[in-house]
């Protein structure tokens, strides 16, 4: 049982810099003071996911954001991240709270062992009243291992910490029916109970020169978090005491409501962490069984296998080529192939070969 409620607060670059693009201590202070108040209420543990390292570095170095290369961006992040942390440390220390820096790449979430270590570290920081401050490890993150945007990173942080609320603070007070910069007549949506394709279509790209991903990445992040049982609130950092209002369940911004039957942590990790190493295609009967009741995948349901994976690998499950979900296989690809060949030659299997245990399975499409 959790003794505190947990809130992951993500602050976008646009909420941290002034009009000239420099880190605004005043803006940081306003956020820090609210987190301190929540933390001191002893009802909330807060994790801060802060963007801003590239923006801070670029302005500190006097570079022009519009025309910098990737290595320059990564160099700017190296400079900006220390500036960012120095400022946070100073502001939190003034209020007698310690901070801990956590820099992550996608590869850290993909690997089950690293995932567990990150979780343990975060929980230990929180248990000791220390505020984890998370950002992408921009200086080392190459394309293949990048989150690419901190909205996704924040949703995975919410997943790792099993947060009750994920707050995405930005320069606009929620999701609108269209990007209000282009459509002044757009209206704010206050509640989203299901993230349908129509909702996804409303979201456009970044609105400022420092932002990444815009509303699109926020809606995608919300999709991950609500499925893990976290309420997601997209709102403006400019609203007075916004975090305290959210903690008190006052309606602000757009609330994406947590799914009533969320995935367990292991399923969430399976769905969003590892890349599959191969494919197991199953027949309609097996798919129906998996969809309608908690069942394991047994050998008779397997149609074909692709890839060169070992037992314990994460594989994609498909039905006639359409993605159904992911699972951890108890058999290597080689052994499965052999069993399928033996079945084709007429061998009957009386002992039930369990290919994927029901606890090691997540259905992405169609749910369960
Ligand atoms: N449907 C929409 N509703 C609200 N904002 C939208 C929408 N589509 C695009 N946006 C843009 O998303 C921007 C916020 O995202 P972004 O610039 O990435 O901020 P941050 O740096 O806080 O992550 C807004 O300024 C807005 O212009
Ligand atoms: N990791 C990057 C931020 C990337 C990002 O998603 O930015 P934003 O859209 O402002 O939240 C940085 O610290 O500059």
UniProtKB/TrEMBL annotation:
Keyword Protein biosynthesis among UniProt keywords: no
Residues given in the record as substrate binding sites: 51, 138, 150
Localization terms from the record: Cytoplasm
Domain spans labelled PUA: 278-353
Swiss-Prot/TrEMBL catalytic activity: L-glutamate + ATP = L-glutamyl 5-phosphate + ADP
Similarity field: Belongs to the glutamate 5-kinase family.
Binding site for ATP: 10, 170-171, 212-218
Alphabetized SUPFAM superfamilies for the sequence: Carbamate kinase-like, PUA domain-like
Protein name: Glutamate 5-kinase
NCBIfam families per the UniProt record, alphabetical: proB (TIGR01027)
Known EC number: 2.7.2.11
Gene symbol of the encoding locus: proB
One MF annotation (Gene Ontology) recorded for this entry: glutamate 5-kinase activity
Function comment: Catalyzes the transfer of a phosphate group to glutamate to form L-glutamate 5-phosphate.
Keywords: Amino-acid biosynthesis, ATP-binding, Cytoplasm, Kinase, Nucleotide-binding, Proline biosynthesis, Transferase
Pathway stated in the Swiss-Prot or TrEMBL entry: Amino-acid biosynthesis; L-proline biosynthesis; L-glutamate 5-semialdehyde from L-glutamate: step 1/2
InterPro entries: AceGlu_kinase-like_sf, Asp/Glu/Uridylate_kinase, G5K_ProB, Glu/AcGlu_kinase, Glu_5kinase, Glu_5kinase/COase_Synthase, Glutamate_5-kinase_CS, PUA
Main subcellular location of this protein, as a coarse class: cytoplasm
């Amino acid at each position: 049982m959790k003794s505190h409620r947990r809130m992951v607060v993500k602050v976008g670059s646009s909420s941290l810099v002034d009009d000239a693009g420099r880190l605004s201590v005043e803006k940081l202070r306003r956020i820090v003071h609210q987190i301190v108040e929540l933390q001191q209420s002893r009802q909330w543990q807060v994790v801060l996911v802060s963007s801003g390292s590239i923006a801070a570095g670029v302005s500190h170095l006097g570079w022009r954001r519009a025309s910098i290369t990737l290595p320059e961006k990564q160099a700017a992040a190296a400079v900006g991240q220390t500036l960012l942390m120095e400022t946070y440390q100073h502001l939190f220390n003034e209020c007698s709270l310690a901070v801990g820096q956590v820099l992550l790449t996608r590869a850290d979430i993909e690997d089950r062992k690293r995932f567990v270590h990150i979780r343990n570290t975060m929980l230990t920081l929180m248990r000791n009243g220390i505020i984890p401050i998370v950002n992408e490890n921009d200086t080392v993150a190459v394309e293949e291992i990048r989150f690419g945007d901190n909205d996704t990173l924040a949703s995975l942080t919410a997943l790792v910490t099993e947060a009750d609320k994920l707050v995405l603070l930005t320069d606009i007070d929620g999701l609108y029916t269209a990007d209000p910069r282009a459509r002044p007549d757009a209206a704010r949506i206050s509640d989203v109970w299901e993230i349908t394709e129509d909702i996804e279509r409303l979201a456009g790209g970044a609105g400022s020169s420092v932002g990444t991903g815009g509303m699109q990445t926020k809606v995608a992040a919300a999709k991950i978090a609500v499925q893990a049982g976290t309420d997601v609130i997209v709102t403006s950092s400019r609203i007075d005491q916004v975090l305290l209002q959210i903690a008190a369940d006052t309606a602000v911004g757009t609330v994406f409501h947590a799914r009533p039957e969320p995935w367990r942590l292991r399923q969430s990790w399976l769905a969003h962490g590892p890349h599959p190493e191969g494919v197991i295609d199953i027949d309609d009967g097996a798919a129906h069984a998996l969809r309608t009741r908690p069942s394991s995948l047994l050998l008779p349901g397997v149609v074909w296998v692709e890839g060169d994976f070992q037992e314990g690998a994460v594989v994609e499950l498909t039905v006639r080529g359409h993605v159904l979900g992911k699972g951890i296989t108890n058999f290597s690809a080689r052994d499965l192939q052999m069993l399928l060949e033996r079945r084709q030659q007429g061998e009957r299997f009386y002992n039930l070969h369990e290919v994927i245990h029901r606890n090691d399975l997540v259905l992405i499409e169609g749910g369960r």
